[in-house]
Structure formats: C-alpha cells, structure tokens
Write a structure and sequence with these properties.
about 550 residues; 5-stranded mixed sheet; 19 helices; 14 strands; about 60% helix
C-alpha cells in the first residue's frame, strides 16, 4: 500500500509540474514576466527528464536496453537545453534558424533508439545487437544533414521570403514528409517488435497502453502540421510534447512488464514462507517475511556470533551481508525429538534385563545406518558437481556488494538448490524401486524450472511419458537438463524441454537461447546432437533406445 501511494504521489507531482510548465508557456506568450516563466518552464522539463533518467538507471535490468533508454533521455536533455538557449539568448536570425533545424535531431534519432530497444526485448541481460543494424545510423544522419542544410536547397522547408525567419512564412516540402515517414516506419516496427516479443499471454493484453501515447503523437503531428491556433498556443512546443509522449510510452512498457525492471523484489520476500528478515548494520529491520518474528536487540547481537535458541525447538541464525545482516529461524523440532529419544534409550540400557534387547536393537540400527550411509554416499556422488557450484555461489554472495548482482546470485542458488533436492530425491526413490515413474520425473523438472524462472529465464517443460523409466535413463534426462542450464546460466534467456516416447525410442529435445557454446555437452552425453540456427538458438536432441520386450525404458 505504501508503494502504491508513493507511485500515486509521484504521478500527481509529475502532472502538476507539467501543468505548471504549460501555464508558464502561456504566461510567456502573453509577455508576462517572459524571461522568468521561460526559464521556469525549461527548468521543470529538464528536472523531469533528468529524474526519469536516474530512475531508469536504477530500475531497468537489461544492460543494452538501459543504455539506449539513457541515450534517449540524454538526447531529450540536450534538445531542451539548446531550445532554451535558442529562445532566450540567440538573437541572430540565421543562427536561430539553424538551432530550429536542430529540433529534428531528437525527432530523428529517438525513434531509431526505440527501434533498437524493440530488437533487444526478450533477450538476455547482456545481449548485444547485431552490428548490421547499426547501418540504420546512415539514413538517420543523412536526414539530419538534409534538415541542417535546408537553407541551401529548401527541400524540407520552403520559405516564401529570405528576409526574415518567421514560423508563418514557410511550407513543408517533400523532405519533411520523408522525415515524417521515416519516423512513422521506425515507430511501427517498434510496436510490432513490442507485440511479437511478448510471450506472456497476460501481458499481451497490456500492449495497448504503450501504443496509446504513440497514437497521440501521430494525432499531435497532424494537428501541428494543420497549424491550428489553439494547438500552437498551448501545445506549440513540439520538441517537449514528443519528449513527454516518448517518456510516457517507455514508462508504460516498464509498468506493464514489457521492459523488465527490478521492482517488487521486496514484496516477493514478504510473501515467502521462510521465517527471515534483513537488518542494517545498526540491527534496524529493513525487510521481513510475513512469518518472521523479530526478537529484541540483545538477541540479535548474540545471534551474530553463534546460533541462538529462541525456544526449545527454534534456532535463530544469521549471516553478514553488504550493509547489514540476514537472520532466519530454523525449526529443530525433529533434532530435539531425536535427541530426547537417544536419552530415553540410554536410560533403558541401564536396566540389565533390557541389555540384550537393546544390543539387538543397536545392531539393527547400525545396519540401517550402514545402508543409509551407502545411500548418502551415492547421493553425494551424484550431486558433487552442483554442490561445488553452490558453494562457489555462496562465496560470491558473501563477497558481493552490489544488490542487483546479489539477487542474481541468490536466484542461481535457488535453481542449483532445487536441482540438488530433486536429484537427491530421485536417488532415494531408486533405492526403494528399480524404476522411476513419469510423474516423479515431472515433479523434478517442474520444481527445478521454478527455480530457474527466478533467474529471469523463460522456461517450459512438456513431458509426455506413460511408462516407467530405468534409473539410468531418468538420471540421464534430468542431468542433461541441469548441465545445459548450468553451462549457460549467466546468459540463458529461454529454455524449452520436450520429452516423449515412441515405439522404439525415448527422445528428449531442448531448445535454448544463449550465447554460450553448448557443443561442449557432447563430451558428457555421447548420443547428444547439438544444432544452432541462424537466430543463435540451440537445439539439443538425445535419443535413448527402448528394449523390445516390454513397456519400460531401460
């Protein structure tokens, strides 16, 4: 609720500032404190755009999109600065006209950068555009050059008289409509990319929101060209209007989730089922989960050095992080129960009459422990590699000072942890049965994919199996998925999995969008085929032969 109120207050504040700027324009037009209101109006717009640029730097995750958004905001600031200089300090008519031509610098280049943003949508955090698309700078620069040299050819604006520069004595030539068509085409492709790269059905309904400001920009351009008096009076600053509409378009994309941002992580932490909370260095709570209970300051200090017993069955642990500490409560009820059981057994063994029975019980327990030890050794062997990777991520998290990077590492820890959990469970199931049921394998994939989604990866698994699998085949399928994701986890964007069966084969297909070379997986899976298409999507295929004598895969 606080966050929603804060966003509402920011929205109201922005609207009030824009209204004040429009009022200042009107006051300057009727020559009331002309200089003051012009400076006030420019200062308001520069403040809004600069504040917006800072917020983009803090919110937008993908580096490539963030770069182009910041370039757009800097272009806006530049255009507003020289626009202010033009109207307040430039007297020479020729220089004034050249600076008027410069208005088309942001109008030409901002749609180009919006198009680059559209190409970057739906890709990884460190995705870089193909160098070929940068050739679009050539027509953009040529169009800008055409405007700046208009005095020599009048192909963009045709002036009826060369004696003075007045807004009312020129007409639009074919060069102007060429520029307008260029802007409309890039804007159209931006909208197409926006709609085409949105893979989440619930968000496709929200695409209309960023399209509305673009439609308003088109209507405004037509009204401006018609030279209506009320448009020129209240909304005659074409540069500012287009800047505000582009800002609104981009902000709608962010708020609708079409452009990924690092918001609402605190809400995710609040609703999780872990009893945990985060404090600063002064042990003031900054965030907490809904189930957490905050002890007093003295208890928190004691828990910094060693685990602290909140009660007989609850242990409070802590770990230092950048800027403070994270605390979590651990339920040790089962440990306490086991300990009490051991004490009770010890008391019973004191009785000489029960000594023999206790000895037999002890032998049986030792046999069980031996079997469990063998099972745990098998688990350790199966998860040794991801366990080592998990330790590396914990080390990175301990040394990490950047909150954004720390969240990324935590997501990877969740993914690796989910794999370790489910792989261990498969080992335990295999100890009781000789086969793995399809439902058990589906549960493994679903839980691990949920952890992978926290890393910002779009993923889906379609497991179409009807017959039990051998332990070896089940391990192979699950390991192929994990090794694939772990190999390219840092730049993984999309991972699709299909597992199906036919009369002769069990087949697993994996589609992966990443930069990392996945051909290295052939060393671990001899029957694996790896193919990469022109869009840099990897296609992995693994076929396992089925025995001809039954319904099971061996």
């Amino acid at each position: 609720m606080k966050k929603r109120n804060r966003r509402l207050m920011i929205f109201i504040g922005v609207i009030l500032l824009i209204l004040l700027a429009v009022f200042s324009r009107y006051m300057a037009k009727i020559k009331i404190h002309h200089l003051f209101f012009n400076i006030l109006r420019s200062g308001i717009y520069i403040f809004l755009i600069a504040s917006w640029a800072v917020s983009l730097r803090n919110r937008v995750i993908q580096i490539n999109i963030q770069k182009y958004l910041l370039i757009i905001s800097f272009v806006m600031l530049f255009s507003l600065l020289y626009r202010t200089i033009k109207y307040l300090f430039v007297i020479d008519l020729t220089l004034n006209r050249i600076m008027w031509y410069l208005y088309y610098f942001p109008m030409i280049f901002m749609p180009l950068y919006a198009f680059y943003i559209g190409l970057s949508l739906g890709n990884g955090e460190n995705y870089q555009l193909n160098k070929g698309v940068y050739l679009l700078y050539i027509p953009a620069c040529l169009l800008l050059f055409l405007v700046l040299t208009n005095d020599y050819h009048n192909l963009v604006f045709y002036f009826a008289s060369e004696q003075a520069y007045l807004d009312d004595v020129y007409t639009y030539n074919w060069g102007y409509y060429l520029i307008l068509g260029y802007i409309i085409i890039l804007t159209f492709f931006f909208v197409v990319l926006l709609a085409g790269k949105c893979r989440i059905e619930s968000r496709k309904k929200m695409i209309i929101l960023p399209i509305i400001p673009l439609f308003l920009a088109l209507i405004y351009a037509l009204l401006y060209c018609s030279r209506l008096n009320w448009v020129r009076l209240w909304f005659g600053d074409m540069n500012v209007v287009f800047c505000l509409l582009i800002m609104l378009t981009i902000e709608c994309c962010i708020q609708c989730g079409l452009i990924q941002s690092n918001v609402d992580y605190d809400d995710l932490f609040k609703i999780c089922s872990i009893k945990a909370f985060i404090t600063d260095n002064d042990l003031q709570v900054q965030n907490m989960s809904r189930l957490a209970v905050i002890p007093n300051h003295t208890v928190l200090e004691k828990a910094q050095n060693q685990p602290y017993y909140l009660d007989e069955n609850t242990l409070l642990k802590s770990h230092s992080i950048s800027g403070g500490y994270v605390y979590w409560q651990e339920d040790i009820t089962e440990v306490v129960r086991q300990f009490q059981q051991l004490r009770q057994t010890q008391s019973e063994l004191i009785d000489i009459g029960d000594l023999l029975a206790a000895e037999n019980e002890q032998k049986a327990r030792m046999l069980k422990i031996t079997e469990e030890k063998h099972l745990y050794d098998l688990v350790e062997k199966q998860i040794s590699s991801p366990l080592e990777q998990l330790h590396n991520y914990f080390s990175q998290l301990k040394d990490c000072d950047d909150l954004k990077q720390a969240k990324s590492i935590l997501s990877k820890i969740v993914f690796i942890g989910a794999y370790i959990k489910r792989k261990s469970n498969l080992v335990f199931v295999s100890a009781q049965k000789n086969k793995i049921e399809p439902l058990e394998l589906k549960l493994c994939f679903n839980e691990t994919l949920s952890g992978l989604e926290l890393c910002g990866v779009q993923c889906y698994a379609n497991i179409n199996l009807h017959n039990p699998l051998s332990i070896e085949y089940a391990f192979t399928l699950y390991d192929l998925f994990e090794f694939t994701a772990e190999t390219c986890l840092d730049d993984l964007d999309l991972l699709l999995i299909y597992i199906g069966e036919n009369k002769n084969f069990l087949e697993m297909k994996v589609s992966v969008s990443c930069v990392t070379d996945l051909s290295v997986l052939k060393k671990q899976f001899s029957n694996l085929t790896v193919y990469q298409d022109e869009d840099r999507l990897y296609y992995l295929s693994l076929k396992l032969k089925r025995e001809a004598n039954g319904d099971e895969f061996n």
